[in-house]
């Protein structure tokens, strides 16, 4: 927000300078008009960025290009996690297009489909990761208590969260590891 206000202020100053240069160019020398052109362009582009219109236009242009190229979006996205989920779903497909013989529920699972504690969708009690891999991902010993697991999870999430500059795939892996190791 502060950056946008600053850009709008600079754009206003440049617009005023452009108007002054145009007036001087008309009354004094046509050469001054040459200096008004880049100043006016800079004012316009700063306003265009600060107003948010540039971002909107770029998104609209990308959507049009995807539509015209006939690009088909994959459900769930193109991340590694989404691809793995689609592969697991295909592997569970049974006869007649039904998901598995038990209608998509795991026979060993006491939980139903829902939202996990980390906000991601969970299916069954195992989050798709062996316990040894989960312990290595979080960096805990095999005999670690639930409080140690939770503390290690929080530390790893801070390191790997995409909003903090971390890797999205690693962040998802940390969440799956925590889902595997937490008490049910």
How does the SSE layout of this entry go?
Layout: H1 2-27, H2 31-50, H3 53-68, H4 80-92, E1 114-115, E2 121-122, H5 131-138, H6 146-160, H7 168-181
Antiparallel strand pairs: 1-2
Helix pairs in contact: 1-2, 5-7, 6-7
Organism: Halobaculum marinum
Pfam families: DnaJ (PF00226)
Region (Disordered): 61-173
Structural class determined from secondary elements: mainly alpha
Percent helix, as a range, is 55-70%
- Radius of gyration based on Cα positions: 28 Å
Instruction: Give the count of helical stretches.
Output: 7
Q: What order do the helices and strands follow?
A: HHHHEEHHH
Q: Spans with pLDDT under 50 lasting ≥5 residues?
A: 94-117, 119-127
Q: Distance between termini?
A: 43 Å
Trace the largest sheet across and list its strands: 1-2
Could you give a short account of the major beta sheet? 2 strands, antiparallel
Give the overall average pLDDT. Answer: 77
Count of DSSP strands: 2
Could you write a compact summary of the structure shown?
It contains seven helices and two strands; from the N terminus they run H-H-H-H-E-E-H-H-H. With 184 residues, it is mainly alpha-helical. This is J domain-containing protein.
Describe the structure.
With 184 residues, the chain is mostly helical. Among the domains are: 67 residues; 58 residues, DnaJ domain (Helix Hairpins), CATH 1.10.287. Strands 1-2 form a two-stranded antiparallel ribbon.
């Amino acid at each position: 927000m502060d950056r946008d206000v600053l850009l709008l202020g600079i754009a206003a100053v440049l617009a005023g300078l452009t108007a002054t240069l145009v007036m001087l160019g008309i009354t004094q020398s046509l050469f001054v008009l040459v200096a008004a052109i880049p100043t006016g362009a800079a004012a316009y582009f700063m306003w265009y960025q600060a107003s948010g219109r540039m971002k909107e236009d770029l998104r609209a242009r990308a959507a049009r290009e995807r539509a015209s190229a006939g690009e088909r979006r994959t459900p769930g996205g193109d991340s590694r996690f989404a691809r793995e989920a689609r592969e697991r779903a295909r592997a569970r497909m049974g006869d007649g297009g039904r998901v598995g013989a038990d209608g998509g529920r795991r026979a060993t699972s006491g939980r139903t489909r829902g939202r996990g504690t980390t906000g991601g969708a969970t299916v069954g009690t195992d989050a798709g990761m062996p316990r040894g891999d989960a312990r290595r991902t979080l960096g805990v010993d095999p005999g670690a208590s639930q409080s140690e697991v939770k503390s290690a999870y929080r530390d790893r999430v801070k390191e790997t969260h995409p909003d903090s500059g971390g890797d999205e795939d690693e962040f998802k892996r940390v969440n799956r590891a925590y889902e595997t190791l937490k008490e049910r």
